[in-house]
# Entry
Amino acid sequence: MRRLAVLPLTAALAFGLAAPAHAATAGPAPALDRAALREAITVRPDEGAASVVAEVHKDGLTWRGTSGDVVTGKRVSPDAHFRIGSITKPMEAVILLQLSAEGRVDLDRSVQHYLPGLLPESRFEEPVTVRQLLNHTSGLPQDFEGAPDTSPDEEIERRLDYLSFDEMIELTLRPEGRPAPGPRFRPGTRQEYNSFGYRVAGKLIEEITGHPFQYEVTTRILKPLGMRETRTAVPNRSAPVPRPYLPGYLPKSSGELVDVNVQGGLPASMTSTTGDLDRFISGLFDGRLLRPAQAAELFTVPTAADGKPLPYANASNCNTGPGKGTACYSVGLMSVPLPDGSVLWGKTGSDPGYRSGVFASRDLGRRAVYAMGTSSSADGAPAVAQRLALAAFGG
# Structure
């Protein structure tokens, strides 16, 4: 069974990317160190990067940079498209927050209420609220929990599969040939990054609206924000990343690199550009998508009865800054502390062959988007991400 990649999220992932670089700037440069930014996106040996595209905005100035494809030697366009992985999670959250404002869903009502029978009662006795799905406090299993790991060759082949929300839920909760998973912890008592909760959230969106997820995200987010370069997945088929595209590779067991830009994915899978993701986070923070009451959810981490942030369940995420070891995710977003004490909010993403991220300050004075095409199958934070974050906003 294919395991959809889940990218560990740390402060190092606020931005980043790679290789012999071409860059363009706008405006005088005092607030943006162009040399440092170019150096930040230069590939180092054994970092698993094949190509990179990045965009930084600071105090009204803009910098865009790319790295060439080190596998083919070809130039990468600043307008390259790439797969954005879990950056679609904030979009799912936005749709449910909008439905909440419309009175069509209550964030504090349970999944069991809206989707009766989806969570087997024998294993999931306690209610799981919609808000807990979105802020990673549901305690639900992870995608395909307990499934054996796939080989590199299987991963390359299975990237072409398209799975609906229903199929993802069934394969996770009612697997064949292995024990069915139960809760990882009591809902609302801890936080742990959980993609499966967003599969359930996607199913809920489709159930409440009566429309496919692709329709809802297009009409509610992509069209209103003018995200013309962003494409949703094509149901029941695989599709390539639109040209010009950022190449991403996975190695076969023989070591041969395979360009994996053609993929199937999930209903929430998308391709985009740095420009469109900057439009998304700008529209998200400036009030074009959400009313104030719903927008506040984006910047609120879950707390316990004593008012302190919930503990984080493991050390893979939420492990930097003064709140180390406690919740760092809100509804749809994550918080990233910077060396100067300020905080950025945003999201990273991971698809086979791709790593990406988009982050911004709440006033939108500082924003950055990056995407990296990989040359290895290693998970984890790209080293260039931390370099780009520090070069852009570390001073």
